[in-house]
Structures are given as structure tokens and as C-alpha cells.
Amino acid sequence: MWLKERTIVERLIALGIANLLLIACSQVRIPLPFTPVPITGQTLGVLLLGALLGSRYGTAVVSAYVLEGVVGLPVFAGWKGGITALLGPTGGYILGFIPAAFLVGYLLERGFCRNWLTILAALIAGNATIYAFGLPWLAFFVGWDKVLLMGLLPFVLGDLVKLLVAASLVRSLRHR
User: How far apart are CA 48 and CA 105, in angstroms?
Assistant: First the structure.
């Protein structure tokens, strides 16, 4: 991985820039009137960082992002921060970002970077991980009978677009 070949200062700068990229992606936000979960660019940022930085560095950046939000820095979607953001309806998705970044990085380190379809498969696995954390948490707020209508189905098409964009970016950038 290219980051391991850099000095500690270069790595810290790269990780800082990656953190800022994730914060910027988080501010791409489209609220939906029928659900407390907005459409955001967070998942795109999380999955890209896992894919491009690997399991170790990608997880570190995403964990730092979550920690920044928990301590009150306004890094989450809509410039929100604080423990209340994590304890709200979208908190499960936010917590799911950490294992998702790890999983995507891990899969690509283990050979899923060979072609566009395997990269896409790794990204889908990461996205599914976010849902695995987010949907049960959201169910506490909206009920199990509404969780798929409010936390999954409205986002499938947008997620597919983000996954296709991410797979293309990862394929292109990893070949350089």
C-alpha cells in the first residue's frame, strides 16, 4: 500500500486530508420528509476511505471521524456533533461506518482489488455492514414494521449509484 512507504509526517497529512474529505462528504445531505434518515455522502466517503487507505488506515480515519463527532465537533451530516447525534435515529449507521471501512479495506487487501466487479462486491459488503448496524438501531425509533420503508428502501437506488461511482474511482486510483 502506498501509504506505508511514506514518512510519518506524510502519513499524518494524508490521513488528515482523508478526514476532511469524509467531513465534506458528510455535508452532502438531502433530508427526506418521511424518515429521520437523510440521503448523505457519508457512505461514499467511508467506503472510499476503506478501499483506498486499507483496513488499518481507513478504519483509523473513520474511527477518528466518529470520535470527533461524539466529542461534539460538528462533523456529522448537517454539521451535527455530540453524543446526541450518535444516540439518535442515525447513530447505528454512524457506528456501522467503522466496521464497514475495515471490511472493505480487508477485502481489497485480500485480493478483491483484481477487477471492477470484485471491488464492487467488497463495497457492497461494506454498505451492507452499515445497514446491519443502522437498521436495528433505527427500529428503536420507528418500529420494526417501518424500518425497511424508512431506513433501507428509499436509499437503495442512491446507494447503487454511489457504489458504482466508488468502484470506478477505486479501480482507477488503485491502478496508478
Answer: 9
